[in-house]
From TrEMBL:
PANTHER family: PTS PERMEASE-RELATED-RELATED, PTS SYSTEM MANNOSE-SPECIFIC EIIAB COMPONENT-RELATED. Transmembrane segments: none annotated. GO terms for biological process: phosphoenolpyruvate-dependent sugar phosphotransferase system. InterPro entries: Bacterial_PTS_sugar_comp (IPR051471), PTS_EIIA_man-typ (IPR004701), PTS_EIIA_man-typ_sf (IPR036662). One of its GO terms (cellular component) is membrane. It comes from the Bacteria. Residues 1-128 form the PTS EIIA type-4 domain. Keywords: Transferase. The keyword RNA-binding does not apply. GO terms for molecular function: transferase activity. This is PTS fructose transporter subunit IIA. SUPFAM superfamilies: PTS system fructose IIA component-like.
C-alpha cells in the first residue's frame, strides 16, 4: 500500500487533507496529516508522528510532502522514518501546495517513485502563477 503523509507547521496539513477529501473521496483513507502545533516541542511532535507511522502497514511505501524543507516538522519526520528503516521506501518532497498534494494523492498508486516525483513537482510549479484578467474577460462572470 502507498500512503501520502502531509507534514506541516500548524494545522496546514490537516486543512489540506480536508480539502483533498472533496476531490479524492474514499482514497482519503491513504492520506495522513500531521502538523507541529504552535508551542509544541519536537519531542511531542515526534511521539505523534511515531504513532501515525505505527498505524500504517509495515511494508508501505510513503510519499511525504512537507511545507518547508529544513523545517522542524519535516526534518523530525525524516529522522523517524530513517530510524524505522523505511527511508528507502519513501519519497520526500517539500514546498507543499494543493495541486502538488492532489496529484500525489491521485498518482501515488499508478507511478513509480521517479515518475511520481516528476509529475508532482511539475504540477506544483505549473500551478503557481499570477492570475490576470484580459480585456476579453470583462464580459465573463467570475
Amino acid at each position: 500500500m502507498n500512503y501520502l503523509i502531509l507534514v506541516s507547521h500548524g494545522r496546514f496539513s490537516e486543512g489540506l487533507k480536508d480539502a483533498l477529501s472533496m476531490f479524492i473521496g474514499d482514497e482519503i483513507k491513504t492520506v495522513k496529516a500531521v502538523g507541529m502545533h504552535s508551542g509544541e516541542d519536537t519531542a511531542k511532535f515526534e511521539e505523534r508522528f511515531k504513532a501515525l507511522l505505527s498505524e500504517l502497514e509495515p511494508d508501505a511505501n510513503l510519499i511525504v510532502l512537507g511545507d518547508i524543507i529544513g523545517g522542524s516538522p519535516l526534518t523530525t519526520a525524516i529522522n523517524i522514518i530513517h530510524q524505522s528503516g523505511q527511508l528507502s521506501k519513501t519519497t520526500i518532497l517539500g514546498g507543499m501546495n494543493f495541486p502538488m498534494a492532489l496529484n500525489a494523492a491521485i498518482l501515488k498508486d499508478s507511478l513509480d517513485p521517479d515518475n511520481l516525483t516528476q509529475a508532482v513537482l511539475t504540477e506544483a510549479t505549473t500551478a503557481v502563477k499570477k492570475f490576470e484578467l484580459s480585456a476579453d474577460d470583462d464580459d465573463d462572470e467570475i
